[in-house]
Specification:
Length: 150
Amino acid sequence: MTQARRRARLALTLAGLLIAAIGLIIYIPASIDSGTADQAQIDASAADWGDVLGYEASHAAKEARFEADQDKRIAEEDKTFGAVLIALGIEIGAGRWAVRPAAIGRHAPQPVAAGPAPVADELAKLAGLREQGILSDTEFEQQKNRLLGG
């Protein structure tokens, strides 16, 4: 595996772990806050019961209910954001597998076809042999076609 691939894999792994860790740092307290907000909503339900029973609830009870609802909404948003970061971190960490090394033997180097320079050199040699009379014109044409793949 090349050094660049190793670095890319390490970078993806560390970035994924960092983002997932940040997501956990956000998610866990938000989950606790959500439970606390649930209890606060229950405790603040006096305002609801006051309205149901036909008497006006105190301003403090209505304010407590409003704050409990707000705290619950914020906690749920933070939980969602934390969960998204965790999933994103996992995806980025899994991206390191996209930079995996080639399996041994699967992508063995293919023989390189003769480039223009070696073919040109061979043709020059064949032309020289034809001029010396060692090769006939038909033999020269056959060897030229063999070199050019025709």
